[in-house]
Amino acid sequence: MKKTSEITKEMKISEVVQKYPKTAFVFIDYGLHCIGCPSAVAETVEEAAKVHRIDLNKLLRDLNKAAK
User: Fold this and answer.
1) pLDDT given at position 4
2) What one-character DSSP code corresponds to residue 3?
């Protein structure tokens, strides 16, 4: 059985970008330019979406699409 990795709301932004570099473009497209700042190490995808008033489910769909 093949196990697939998926980006989840609990993952840190820096973790997502490090593991899936193409997701940096998604974050930037959403106006989340924090991918290189210190807060990216501590902030989860969910927290960033909430602070920036972004639809979390849509962001996760787009991140996972970019990661494939």
Assistant:
1) 55
2) -
The domains of the chain are located at: 13-67
Residues in the chain where the model's pLDDT stays below 70: 1-4
Residue 8 contacts residue 37 (beta carbons within 8 Å): no
Q: Give pTM, 2 decimals.
A: 0.88
Q: 13-67 architecture in CATH?
A: Orthogonal Bundle (1.10)
The number of CA neighbours under 13 Å toward the Cβ of 4 is 7
**Cβ–Cβ < 8 Å for 26, 63:** yes
The three-state secondary structure class of 9 is coil
Identify the helix (H) or strand (E) that includes residue 27.
helix 23-29
